[in-house]
Amino acid sequence: MLEARGITAGHGRAAPVLADLSLHLARGEILGLAGPSGSGKTTLGRVLAGLHPPRAGRVTLDGAPLPRRGPCPVQYVAQHPQMAMNPRWRINRVLAEAGPPDPALAGLLQVAPDWLDRFPQELSGGQLQRVALLRALGAAPRVLVADELTASMDALSQARIWQVLRDLAERTGLAVLAISHDAALLDRIASRILRLP
Amino acid sequence: MTGRLRLIAAAGLAAALILAVALASWGLGARGIAADFGARLLPPSPAHPFGTDHMGRDLLARSLHGLALSLRVGLAAAGLSALIAVAVTGLAGLGRRADAVAGFVTDVMLALPHLLLLLLLSFMLGGGTAAVILAIAVSHWPRLARILRGELRQVMAMPYVETSRALGRPRRFVLVHHVLPHLAPQLLVGVLLMFPHAILHEAGLTFLGFGLDPSRPATGVMLAEAMRHLGAGRWWLAVFPGAMLLALVLAFDLLGGSLRRLLSPAEVRL
User: Fold this and answer.
1) Quick check: B168 and A71 CB within 8 A?
2) Does A84 touch chain B (CB under 8 A)?
3) pLDDT value at position B269?
4) Complex ipTM
5) Least trusted range by pLDDT, from A24-28, B5-9, B84-88
6) What is the Cα–Cα distance from B123 to A9, expressed in whole angstroms?
């Protein structure tokens, strides 16, 4: 389904952080992405979601490049979700940017109704991660790039969120690229793990 | 009193002064406009605190009329200038090529000496109120546009803008809902700080004979007329209208400066 071939990417004129990297993500698969800090995990996630243009290589979904208009079928949930939310908007408006949120999914992700009237800076890191995930899923993506998605959550919440994503992967065929430093977590949730040097 | 309260007090005082000038002229009616040749060139006295001019008109009333006129011209010129600056900034937000065009036009306009441009435009447009407003607006938008474009580029680089685009929102939505509200405080302060500049230019242009109609009670007209009588010791003809203009300009400067500090994230702890 999602295919990246010969990706070379970096920042500015510095040496590339990713060189000639290829990967394949199948429908309904949860692929773990591990590697030390600075190894290019986030850069790869952003390249796959079409947010960072690679210097070389291409990303295709079912053989076609990612569309330039409309909601991107590969959604990226950032490591620091507060930066990905307009600080002047309340959470209900933030969520509505991807369309009306699904109340059942909001319940599963434990996004409480009383958060909706707050501003992003009034929520904790874990709460913001859930809001960012609910928003990304609201765009009905085919692939989700989850960058340290549950890093700010306690073990119980972490397990619950990943259970929801596994169910979604099974039920709807959503493919997930799970980027994490937590090797134990990736061992538990991913069907295979790609390690960056 | 904390720094923040002091700033709010300064802004309130300046706003009150500006409002008082605007209302005073309205309440004066025709006073200071009709000639009284029996009271020509009288020095300041309780009956005429600012003295009278060569046609016997009360200078206090005339100065207030002049400032009110300056306020109207300044408001129109600063407003029109801000509209042009916002339009150019909006163009810059439409894409990389449009941004390059907007940047080029702004840089070209900034490279032209704005006083010369102001004089040329006012002369070409034949003088008068509309010409002064247009000349000030056309020669003054680039500085504001440069500030707004800088802010625009900063906001466009924010991850939430990128996310909005990834969620399928078109560029225009991003511009209207994410970027413009962020630019509003900068725009407000920019317009307020452009106001005194516009007022000074209006008076300068009028003083040089390229501005408002000499029959109108404008500060520039009063100062130009005063030049002929200064050698004869009629100092009040220039000092009072000049000081009033200076006070109004300082009030705007204080209001704009206070607002800029109040809205600046760096001053949040004040």
Assistant:
1) yes
2) yes
3) 45
4) 0.89
5) B5-9
6) 57
